[in-house]
């Protein structure tokens, strides 16, 4: 059975879970979002489940309405560096934005984490969703970059970073103690990047890792984001709330990757899922109900009022529908809303459901139930061309991950849908990708005659 | 015996050691500078020796003449995050420059590492020595900032970072599951920083650590650097090559700290030392000779030609003296030279010795010999008012650290000069400093009447 026939699994780690009320559950650990021992346990659980990688999201600003699990949390690259030492096989993907840091700094931080983990790091490339509306002001600007501008900048940024990552060819270091020749200077390169947004000379002061460089992950939903992902991403992360939408997205994105000159089989699409697992269907439904009941009216309406600054939410309740609130027709000033608007206009959810959609913790009925039901859904989506794998965005942690590893993973393994154990040592190895060749070594090989 | 009566010890970790030829020693590990298992071993050795902290230097550019151990190395903040998980008590100090990163990003990275290590991180604040002459070009500029400008910028940078680190008061998080009150919004703060160089709004999305925030370390040698250190630094790191210079520096710096309104006892001065340890004096001298013999003429002269671009070194050998080369009178374009010029003008060293001075791997005769001799020197410097402690810049690693921990530390302990074991859990605790109060909590306490 080829690697391509098995699904990929990733675990989204975020404090007590994706659900904004998860911190109020009886077993939720106070301070989970900033507890390194807790994150080590989560990562080891995912590794025990032979997951391809754990995933750390990020944001560059908070305000009083932010999700409880992002108010106080680790910076993702330092976190994956720490998790590297506490794990041995699992991939570690950190989110980092291209919008507010120099390419040289980010190239170094990420490749350093990749070396520390011996080739298990990934970079989730974002241009920053400005949910709080105050990101720019943390970096000396008044207004966040517009979407199109952000992706133009991101494209040049990633080009520069990829160039820096090739500064040293893989066989540049000789360590010839007898002659005193430490390295071959012809295998050390400067990129001399001079672009519209950045000038970066190089070389970088760190060399490539066992997997070449960090795996490139992306979650672009806008047209600009998908163009960007089609060009660069090796793993794409999306959230679709039903099978049809997921299949349509999958087919469309693979076509975009092909149009961008990529082999669509080399781009893996993971669908974000927030399953609620119970021993019986009733138990799972009750669990979801408990979580929902812990989410206060004022938190939901307060978040939405901050997100949609143009709407007065005081006349509404959490059961008000999108149409009643006028959200289906709104040209929202918040650019993040673009990706949610089509589904909201079509499905007319309540404000409570809209909140879950925006926060990314919506659990559709197809993902609430027994381990068998969850496995059935994942098998359908995987075999039916809706996903190459899944990003487990557990509503409540550690329970949602523990239960998935204990009860769902063995079912997927028994059905031949998921690996029994790791077969590789690097993240690209888990995914089934080769280390990308160094551009300078590749061009030298292309130039030299066959021997 | 109070904490203040015992010396502080730190280990400077850099690949195969400070000496530029250390990688050629028979036991030197190829790729040591980028081997995480090796760094874990070094950190654990220092922890076994009850060192206050390990220290990671940094630079933001390399060229073909750079020190072998900096060509390919970990970024320091990711490295200390990783070492946090592999150690439990020792402090972990990372160097980071204020010249080419946004305050919000660096504040986050450092406080994240401090939280990951449970209060064991330190920040060695640098404005970047541009040894390679091409730092600026990695960050979109042609010329590196001038010294005075760098420190003006650094002062504002550190002010902003310290403000961001106080975003959350220590008791801001309530985790009140019953009422749904996660935090007290009156204890979340924005700094609204608007300065000459930076605008930073806040709040930071991570809260203070068990030691408040990372220990502030500095190694400024210029007047501007010392002014800066006198204001901010809790630990100062200097390199003086004889007792008289070290005593003069110590007295002068303590006076500067007092003039800046600090208690001079709260600023700890560590002197950098590069001891060569042997079972006998002869063995140590032979070791130093072996190291020197492994350093090629061309490496030394190539480095110096790159460092002093205004001088033609082709007529010289490594035994040419400073006066013969005209270095004693030179107004060097390289600003790093300012700190070495007085000692070079006075002592007239050879080019080989000047190279060691600049690289920071010079081993004076008082530090070449038996463990007893090394301990005698350290005791003299410590009791004589030349140092509050030492930064071990071992010429060769791991040997130089292993030998020091095995043979010198027990002598210092037997003489009551150094702790037998750790008495605290945080880096500030090891040093003997309290966690700094949160500025907002402190001002609230000052305002409220005594009860």
UniProtKB/TrEMBL annotation, chains A, B:
Tagged with keyword Zinc: no
Keyword entries, A-Z: Flavoprotein, FMN, Monooxygenase, Oxidoreductase
Gene3D superfamilies: Luciferase-like domain
Pfam families, A to Z: Bac_luciferase
Sample GO molecular function, one term: oxidoreductase activity
Protein EC: 1.-.-.-
Classification via InterPro entries: Diverse_substr_monoxygenases, Luciferase-like_dom, Luciferase-like_sf, NTA_MOA
Luciferase-like domain sequence ranges: 24-386
SUPFAM superfamilies on file: Bacterial luciferase-like
Enzyme class, spelled out: oxidoreductase
Similarity comment text for this entry: Belongs to the NtaA/SnaA/DszA monooxygenase family.
PANTHER family, per database record: ALKANESULFONATE MONOOXYGENASE-RELATED, C2H2 FINGER DOMAIN TRANSCRIPTION FACTOR (EUROFUNG)-RELATED
Name the record gives this protein: LLM class flavin-dependent oxidoreductase
Organism: Paenibacillus aurantiacus
């Amino acid at each position: 059975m080829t690697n391509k026939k098995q699904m990929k699994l990733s675990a989204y780690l975020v404090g007590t879970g994706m659900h904004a009320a998860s911190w109020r559950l009886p077993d939720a650990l106070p301070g989970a979002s900033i507890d390194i021992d807790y994150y080590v346990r989560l990562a080891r659980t995912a590794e025990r489940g032979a997951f391809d990688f754990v995933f750390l999201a990020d944001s560059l600003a908070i305000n009083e309405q932010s999700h409880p699990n992002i108010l106080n949390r680790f910076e993702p690259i330092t976190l994956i560096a720490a998790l590297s030492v506490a794990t041995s096989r699992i991939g570690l993907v950190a989110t980092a934005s291209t919008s507010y840091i120099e390419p040289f700094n980010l190239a170094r931080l990420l490749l350093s984490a990749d070396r520390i983990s011996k080739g298990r790091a990934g970079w989730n490339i974002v241009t920053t969703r400005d949910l709080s509306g105050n990101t720019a002001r943390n970096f000396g600007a008044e207004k966040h970059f517009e979407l199109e501008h952000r992706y133009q900048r991101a494209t040049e940024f990633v080009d520069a970073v990829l160039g820096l990552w090739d500064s040293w060819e893989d066989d540049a270091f000789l360590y010839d103690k007898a002659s005193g020749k430490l390295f071959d200077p012809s295998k050390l390169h400067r990129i001399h990047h001079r672009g519209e947004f950045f000038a970066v000379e190089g070389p970088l002061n760190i060399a490539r890792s066992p997997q070449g460089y960090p795996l490139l992950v992306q979650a672009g939903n806008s047209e600009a984001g998908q163009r960007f992902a089609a060009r660069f991403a090796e793993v794409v992360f999306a959230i679709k709330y039903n099978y049809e939408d997921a299949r349509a997205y999958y087919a469309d994105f693979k076509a975009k990757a092909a149009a961008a000159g990529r082999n669509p089989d080399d781009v893996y699409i993971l669908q974000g899922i927030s399953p609620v697992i119970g021993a019986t269907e009733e138990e799972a439904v009750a669990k979801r109900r408990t979580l929902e009941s812990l989410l206060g009216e004022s938190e939901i309406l307060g978040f939405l009022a901050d997100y949609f600054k143009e709407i007065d939410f005081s006349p509404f309740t959490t059961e008000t529908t999108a149409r009643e609130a006028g959200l289906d027709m709104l040209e929202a000033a918040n650019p993040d809303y673009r990706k949610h608007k089509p589904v909201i206009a079509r499905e007319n959810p309540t404000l409570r459901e809209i909140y879950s959609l925006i926060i990314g913790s919506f659990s559709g009925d197809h993902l609430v139930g027994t381990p068998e039901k969850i496995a059935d859904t994942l098998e359908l989506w995987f075999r039916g061309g809706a996903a190459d794998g899944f990003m487990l965005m557990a509503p409540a942690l550690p329970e949602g991950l523990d239960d998935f590893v204990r009860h769902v993973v063995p079912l997927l393994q028994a059905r031949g849908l998921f690996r029994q154990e790791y077969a590789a040592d690097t993240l690209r190895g888990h995914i089934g990708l080769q280390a990308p060749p160094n551009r300078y070594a590749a061009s030298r090989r292309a130039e030299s005659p066959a021997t």
